[in-house]
């Protein structure tokens, strides 16, 4: 029966992860481009290069990409070859969590934990996407499983295996993987058998294994001469060491690694409520109340248990894991994406499983004292009520979506709580005259109430988790929940250096005037993963390449990635992900032009209205490169390659019907009449008080800021 239930959970999870997966296209095209580039060259594969020419790496270690690139190499480039590895990682994660929790509190706890993780929205959405997070989370849960086994079996080898798994997780997402290390170490130190000196010695050996597993790829890259490998994307000095401790490490926590205004935009709304806010709440908040209640109940029930008690170790492991993730991710000042909270999902799900297992054990054992039926019932009711309160809070943000769900949850919670209270009352009276039948019925009533309570806890997250199956998810962040449940960075307070940027002010004003544009603006705010190299431009670049190593150079990885992913051409991403990397420097760019390795440079924006938006968002090096190109290279007339406004691509690719275009701006990038992103109905009445003159001015500012400017650096300048 147990294995049948586990199989059902795993099959259900696999369906959630795989159903209509190809609707997500290439998912995060940034990683899709890297997987394609890495699949065609061992050099690119080892170093994790983004582009086929091996100019720059992605801003993460390549472990997750090694799996994806191998899949692309074996099966060819497709949605399935790119996305199925993450889906498989999700299934392995559920399986590993089941075994870890089962070893601590029994089969019931393992099954409930596995089911809770399976329907956690952030877990489903990331398992359907090609970001590194599913692989990091899988390896961390495998580490927890190995740690639990090492404690039970008193095995130093299993402890070392747990450390290696964390080290490999580091090779997927760097220092974020280390958030759970204190939880793993604490549990082993507290709950493992043997003397303190032996436990400390084994932890020391495991730490060495962790360092070796984490540092092997880093050492390989940093010890390779810089001239013989790609530039390390995201670093300031072309070393993985700087990437780890700067942009992708402590910079994410203290905000020092944002490199320009990008980090300030992406790092807003920090604080204790971040896991519950409009951006993140629908991803993770659902299970938190029950998880907290379960942790408190477990600590109270097992407070007098032996040091090696597995149930208390479970509370320490998963509770510390969840607490550390909440503390660091809630208060991090640096760049933050909502899906980062997925690292906490296994811990919350495990605590839910632990709570149900402890409650069932308390009812089976009977008694009304500490850890007995009455305290357990009180904890269960408190967790149930707070869970429904959080669910109602999140669901109220989209009141028309599944409007029946809120009242249903409330009614079901009241029934479940009432049944639990009735069962506890009947159990207490079972010892009186004429009460044995009532006492025998109490456990059955409590069990039925527990099943109903589990349904209440998981109903709302399941409803959210089903939405990715209906809505495609592309860009840099996986999408989950009903429409408009996630906010755009345009809704956040802009940092001081961007407050006066004309393009961003115009974009914000237009999205306030026409909420319909919010969906169209998502490519701008979710990584600029828009293919600016149109078919006519691509044909022009190929025809006029003249043997250059690079087809074209563009600002930032996200602007280069779509062309790389779709064509496999050697596009140079200048400046890395944020445009802030010194790759190339101005002198390096000039050297590439002199050696005829580079002929064409495509810049986005830079007109008189507001300058290049990339330059405004990134560090000064981006502006210096752009200025050199404009001064030293010749602007190619747009008519030669069918060019137009980049705003057409940025808004038009998400427009209804898929036709590029924007009202009031020049022709579409691919030629022909522009189509309106508002659809066939024309321009509606603005939602705010704004004059037609202001609207036209805003569109002109945006058209200028997002204009496509192709420069020929081999042609003589005027």
Automatic annotation (TrEMBL):
Keyword tags: Cell membrane, Glycosyltransferase, Membrane, Transferase, Transmembrane, Transmembrane helix
Name of the molecule in the record: Membrane protein putative Glycosyl transferase domain
GO molecular function: pentosyltransferase activity
Membrane topology designation: Multi-pass membrane protein
Origin: domain of life: Bacteria
Glycosyltransferase RgtA/B/C/D-like domain: residues covered: 59-216
Regions crossing the membrane: 72-98, 105-123, 135-151, 200-221, 278-301, 313-332, 344-365, 377-395, 407-427, 447-466
One Pfam family matching this protein: YkcB_C
Localization of this protein: Cell membrane
Predominant localisation class: membrane
BP GO terms, sorted: lipopolysaccharide biosynthetic process; response to iron(III) ion
A cellular component annotation (GO) from this entry: plasma membrane
Putative mannosyltransferase YkcA/B-like C-terminal domain ranges (all copies): 537-613
Lineage: Bacteria, Bacillati, Actinomycetota, Actinomycetes, Frankiales
Keyword Ligase: no
